[in-house]
Design goal:
The chain is α/β, with parallel strands linked by helices and 409 residues long. The chain contains 14 helices and 17 strands. It has an 8-stranded mixed sheet with strand order 11-10-12-1-13-16-2-17, sandwiched between helices. Strands 3, 4, 5, 6, 7, 8 and 9 form a 7-stranded antiparallel sheet that branches. A hairpin with a 4-residue loop joins strand 3 and strand 4. Helix 3 packs parallel to helix 14 and helix 11 crosses helix 13. The radius of gyration is 22 Å and the shape is globular. The chain binds zinc ion (2 copies). The site of one zinc ion has 6 residues, from helix 12.
Amino acid sequence: MKTLFILLDGVGDRPSQILNGLTPLQAARIPFLNALARDGSNGLMDPFSPGIPVGSDTGHLSILGYDPYKYYPGRGPFEALGAGIKLKPGDVAFRCNLATVNDENRVVDRRAGRISSEEAAELVESLLEVKEVDGVEILLKHTVEHRCVLVLRNGVSDKVSDVDPHKDDVDLLWPRPIDSSREAVRTSEVLTKLLKRYRMILEKNPINVRRREKGLQPANMLLPRGAGKMPELPSLSSRYGLKSAVVAGAALYKGVCSAVGMDVVEAPGATGTLNTDLNSKIKTAFGALKSYDFIFLHIKGADTAAHDKDPLTKASFLERVDAALKKNFEPPSDEFIVCITGDHTTSSLTGEHRGDPVPVLIWGHGVRVDSVNRFNEVDAARGAIGRIRGLDLMNILMDLMNRTEKFGE
Ligand code: ZN
Ligand code: ZN
């Protein structure tokens, strides 16, 4: 048995006026996904718990069967892992944004006008001249668009507060120790010094000079958040004897998946943004099923469009996913299951993750066929899967693959 797990990031949504009171999934023309729903089992899933919005990181952990209360180390370590940084024991990793701040250190735009990956990569490159601060080794790596990863190594603590205030038009928050340990105090001091040096380097960078001339926001500050050390996660192969891999564009998802022991299979043209090469990703995922039992395919665009409060773009992105799936759908054998769901709802009204459940669809060998014939948040509620928690999903899939152990005699 082989399983393809397609995770459409932020796929759930709320009704929009511009879509005549429908959600993007309801409004989109997605005949292929609807056909899978018609011939499969459907339901709703609370990625963590009803009404509790999750981040992509906690959502993924939960859906992969790892209780975030037990295993979540903060966003930084997963992001670092996904960016290809090998974390050593004791390393503290942060997720960072390149951002625009004014002279009073007020955050004007925490994504620096959604700066391009090319410009952001060059700006981050210029920061690499800072290799250490007061004996603490500094590793920095750009990932996608305004995002990068910072790792502090040598006698540091993850008990340090977020610098990113998580919204615009407020003061940036200088790092503070969260406990009274010497390491936490030292880490916040080192981080403060580092950020001030970064600020000086970024202000002078020709890219920012040019951006100012063009009336664009300069990316003149780095905003770290989500400090954490990597936890030990029991692997999927130790839990289920599964040979698994991930196909994803963005760093975080490769990170979460490799933390649970999945291999990373690269798809050419996978960017983790709206302009990703969907055909390439889906083709790569099906190709990889020849050598793996379980492929986790992550597709980001729907979430990005919803964060931009753009339900129309979200719907048309979902239509592109549908077309690319139809074009490249090549089950490796008859004994094949596909599961399609999301990691959370992202409201294109508020631009934020919300706690509404997401549709879950399972199609293929041995799957009960229910009476639902469309893939969306409302029709799914009538399906045979009912309403499940994210933590249950892997067990349900592994059961269909006949890989779960009997409980009792
Ligand atoms: Zn997400
Ligand atoms: Zn999101």
